């Protein structure tokens, strides 16, 4: 009996010592978290997380860097591009981030940046928030673990874009980092409806090209205005879902596209440099085409047409002062069945002569899409009765064929 008591006392002491050890480790760990900072300072000291960013003011690049704390950005899709985008904006000290995603972290995501193996099984928004809060506790976070294309979620999504910003204001910018056509269309529809600027981004399924496209409802082409690009993306991503077909992805391409996205976000919010309407990237040739896309007056989205009308009215009431402000020349392609006006800003020297003549005119120059032939083959494979044709197929035709894939 005495022996038993002695052994219990010893065990008790050991456990107490272990608890103390763990508490010490925990205290040390939480002491490593940085405290919130109320005002961004330009002070050049090693302990100031914003000194390098605030230096942009001293360098004459940004007038009021600290304004970034007043802005809210919504990121739809927190995958290979979205997570890196969220991290960059968090490190830059954005005021608030709203994250939407319904997926879970998996080991198959580890070829990309941001997520860690120990986060496997967690929802992407939950894992993101934990990491991002730790990096910068000054940023406000709001996360939504649902699919925005679900009918019962769409209204909530629109509501958060409309009033999820700081002080209940609309968000300042929506960034699309999704990997599917339906989600892009849902974002496009919502943003056209509530007149919200957004930036679309995409990476091809072969991992060697990508793009960003700025959409200002009524002023630039919306996602529904520009079918050729949409169709190409749509087919690419549909193939992902075909059994046995696994899309490739590279951390490099995704990081580059996220960098483009955040660079243009910062330029827009903090008003420096010029925001690129469309910026493509072809990794095979290190080719970076840029262009401006005007809205399509025959767009299928009725809100896009309303926004176009409003903008034309605005222009009529507020005519631009000098033509020299915008030296771009509009080129209307006569045989462009979608009526898209395109301004190619690519220097002559960079233009490719060997463009595929089969590509739909106008948007084909976005970047040399190696998938175009694959796309054509896919479409052929999927339709038994399809005739061989050199003509580009219409959006509706392609969409109906895709349904059968
Ligand atoms: Zn449109």
Topology summary:
Layout: H1 2-31, H2 51-58, E1 72-76, H3 82-91, E2 96-100, H4 124-135, E3 140-144, H5 151-163, E4 173-176, H6 181-194, E5 198-203, E6 209-215, H7 227-240, H8 251-270, E7 278-282, E8 290-293, H9 302-317, E9 331-332, E10 341-344, H10 371-382, H11 395-403
Parallel strand pairs: 1-2, 1-4, 2-3, 4-5
Antiparallel strand pairs: 5-6, 6-7, 7-8, 8-10, 9-10
Region (Disordered): 379-405
Keywords: ATP-binding, Coiled coil, Metal-binding, Nucleotide-binding, Ubl conjugation pathway, Zinc
InterPro entries: D-isomer_DH_CS1, ThiF/MoeB/HesA, ThiF_NAD_FAD-bd, Ubiquitin-activating_enz
Q: What report would you give on this structure?
A:
It is built from eleven helices and ten strands. It is of the alpha/beta class and 405 residues long. It has a domain at 71-317: NAD(P)-binding Rossmann-like Domain (Rossmann fold, 3-Layer(aba) Sandwich), CATH 3.40.50.720. Strands 3-2-1-4-5-6-7-8-10-9 form a ten-stranded mixed beta sheet, with helices on both faces. Helix 3 (82-91) packs across helix 8 (251-270) and helix 5 (151-163) packs across helix 6 (181-194). Bound molecules: zinc ion. Zinc ion binds next to loops.
């Amino acid at each position: 009996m005495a022996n038993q008591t002695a052994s219990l006392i010893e065990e008790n002491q050991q456990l107490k010592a272990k608890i103390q050890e763990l508490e010490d480790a925990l205290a040390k760990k939480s002491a490593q978290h940085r405290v919130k900072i109320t005002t961004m300072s330009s002070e050049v000291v090693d302990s100031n997380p914003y000194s390098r960013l605030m230096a942009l003011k001293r360098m004459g690049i940004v007038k009021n860097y600290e304004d970034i704390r007043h802005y809210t950005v919504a990121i739809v899709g927190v995958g290979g591009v979205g997570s890196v985008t969220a991290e960059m904006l968090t490190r830059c000290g954005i005021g608030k981030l709203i994250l939407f995603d319904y997926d879970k972290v998996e080991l198959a995501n580890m070829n990309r940046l941001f997520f860690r193996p120990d986060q496997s099984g967690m929802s992407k928004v939950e894992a993101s928030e934990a990491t991002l809060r730790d990096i910068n506790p000054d940023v406000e976070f709001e996360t939504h673990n649902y699919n925005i294309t679900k009918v019962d979620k769409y209204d909530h999504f629109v509501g958060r874009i409309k009033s999820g910003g700081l002080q209940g204001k609309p968000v300042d910018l929506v960034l699309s980092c999704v990997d599917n056509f339906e989600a892009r269309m849902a974002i496009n529809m919502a943003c056209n409806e509530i007149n919200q600027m957004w930036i679309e981004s995409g990476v091809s399924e072969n991992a060697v090209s990508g793009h960003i496209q700025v959409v200002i409802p009524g002023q630039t082409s919306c996602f529904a205005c520009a079918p050729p690009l949409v169709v190409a993306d749509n087919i690419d991503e549909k193939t992902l879902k075909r059994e046995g077909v696994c899309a490739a992805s590279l951390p490099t391409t995704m990081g580059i596209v996220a960098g483009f996205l955040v660079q243009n976000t910062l330029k827009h919010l903090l008003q420096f440099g010029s925001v690129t309407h469309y910026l493509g990237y072809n990794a095979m040739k290190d080719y970076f085409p840029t262009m401006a896309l005007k809205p399509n007056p025959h767009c299928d989205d009725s809100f896009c047409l309303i926004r176009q009308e409003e903008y034309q009215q605005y222009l009529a009431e507020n005519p631009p002062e000098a033509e020299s402000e915008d030296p771009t020349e509009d080129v209307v392609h006569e045989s462009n069945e979608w009526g898209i006006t395109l301004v190619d800003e690519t220097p002559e020297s960079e233009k490719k002569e060997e463009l595929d003549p089969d590509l739909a005119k106008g948007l084909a120059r976005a970047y040399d899409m190696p998938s175009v032939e694959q796309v054509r083959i896919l479409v052929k494979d999927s339709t038994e009765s399809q005739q061989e044709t050199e003509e580009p197929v219409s959006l509706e035709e392609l969409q109906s064929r895709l349904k059968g894939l």
